Amino acid sequence: MLPSERRDFIYRYIHEYHTISISALVELMNVSHMTVRRDIRTLEEEGKVISVSGGVQLSDALRQELPWNEKARLNHRHKREIGRYAVSMVEDGQVVYLDAGTTTFEIARVLAERFNLTIITNDFSITQYLMNKPQLSLFHTGGQVDKRNHSCVGRTAAMLLRSLNVDIAFISTSSWDLEHGVSTPHEEKVLVKQAVLKTARRRVLVSDSSKYGKYGMFRVCPLSSLDDIVCDSQLSPEIQQQLREHNLILHSVNIHTQ
Predict the structure, then answer these.
(1) Which domains does the chain have, with CATH numbers?
(2) For residue 229, what is the enclosing H or E element?
(3) CA distances from 197 to 158, 162, 173, 255 (A)
(4) 115 near 135, Cβ under 8 Å?
(5) Which residues form the HTH deoR-type domain (predicted)?
(6) What does the DSSP 8-state code read for residue 223?
(7) C-beta separation of 86 from 114 below 8 A
């Protein structure tokens, strides 16, 4: 592997498994301890990871998101079950917004079999998936293209959303918790999310539990701006209790093993 490929591998791995030992990385990548430590030091300097005793884990301060294709492979079963649950909130005839993301893509997969819905999204992958579903009315926001995340962001996308009335919006995020609310490391995403939060009658955060406790530089909204949170049941009981003590409606989705 090239140095950049090794660092990408480490970053992807801890996104999925949260922590890993140096000895395990040595074995997985077939390199020396010194090489692994050098890669970890570079990732630390970039603010992506932090060293722990004998290993490395993801930094709570999220500096960068993984590309869409890589995120789609992480926690896929959790995202699929969250998506299936979220669809139960959608009523016939509604205008539904699907934020860009791999969890909202799972919602789109189920909504593709529904009728009499209008779908709005800033996600190109969702748009492509729903393109051949004639029973659905489909809108894309347009705007500045974020190639890494297969979506549109920025003022143009936000402008369209501010001109619409949305019945229910499913909001995605790479980071959220009680202290920092919903956040993102990318400023361009903030305008889009905030625009739809203002125009939607019902605002639903959909996220797997691995993203809880992380935070990006740019704050989208406090959790109190949301009507519902749909997450898998692997949030700790303490966190679930804290969320409910703040009068947040948490839908905890059981993940079926296969």
Answers:
(1) 3-59 (1.10.10.10), 68-253 (3.40.50.1360)
(2) strand 228-232
(3) 11, 9, 13, 28
(4) yes
(5) 3-58
(6) G
(7) no
**169 Rama sector, left if φ>0, alpha if ψ -120 to 50, beta otherwise:** beta
Is residue 185 a contact partner of residue 63, using CB atoms and an 8 Å limit?
A: yes
Tell whether the model's pLDDT for residue 40 goes beyond 60.
yes
Q: 126, 108 in Cβ contact below 8 A?
A: yes
Q: What is the pLDDT of residue 45?
A: 77
From 71, 101, 57, 120, select the one nearest 230 (Cα to Cα). Answer: 101
pLDDT score of 170 more than 70: yes
* Angle CA 116–119–123, to nearest 5: 155
Owner of token pair 């959909």:
206
CA 251 to chain centre: 17
Chain-centre distance of CA 23, in angstroms? Answer: 30
Largest distance between two CA atoms of the chain: 60
- pLDDT at residue 220, rounded to an integer: 97
Q: What is the tens place of the pLDDT at every residue in 89-133?
A: 999 999 999 999 999 999 999 999 999 999 999 999 999 999 999
- The predicted model scores a pTM of 0.81
- pLDDT tens profile 146-157: 998 899 999 999
